[in-house]
Amino acid sequence: MSVRPVAPQRRHTLHFLDEIRQFSPVFLDTEVDMSAVRAHRMAARAAGRRYSIVSYLLVVAAGVLARHPEANAAIRGRIRPRISRYDTVSGKLTLDKMLDGKRVVLSAVLPDLDRSGLDEVQRQVDHYRDNDPAVMPEFAGVRALHRLPWPVRPFAFRRVVRPLSRRPRTFGTFALTSLGHAAVDGFHSVGGTTVTLGVGRILDRPVVRDGGLAIAPMMRLSLAFDHRVIDGAEAADVLTEIRDGIEAYAPSPVCDAVAAATR
Prior knowledge:
Largest sheet: 6 strands, mixed
Strand content: 25-35%
Distance between the termini: 56 Å
């Protein structure tokens, strides 16, 4: 047996977990038929464009949360809790990255997703996926946190993330994490936001359509919500609308126009 200190590259994760101890999670999940998204991805690939599954989910979830301001919110405080509801939707995406030779989980906040098209969201996802967090300016704060001594580090972390006015920039107004690249059908994650989505892998499974048996690409989608902020009925509506939006996915005319103008 060997006993070692926690790797410096994981210190931000420990501070994050400590910060969300007051979270009161309730978990929901559903299955999503990904046929429409698969068809759109194939057509896009034939046209020379590639989109990740998380990009579709970020776009659709942002549209749903814009219609549910009660869920696009954050809470702080125990004796006299305060809830802040936000005018725009920012998504926190977890990333499996290497930092200084250590495999770690980092998170990136994508702002104004409710005003972004699929192409813009994919551009941001590609940016965080393809670049090195050891040199990216977006992770300068994380790197600085790792270097701070213990007495200062927790204070510095709380000072950055606790103010409700900063939450959209530091935590996002919702979170999404995916393990769909591995043999994981479903899982439930708490991302520190009122709503956190967990994405599993896509597998062809038997489904019933119009009274007959068919095969469809199915994905397990989970939603964890903070019961301090919203109740189960609101969370169920959010999850249902995300599922429905994915199953009937079609880019909006506005998003198509934006995408065309930027190509």
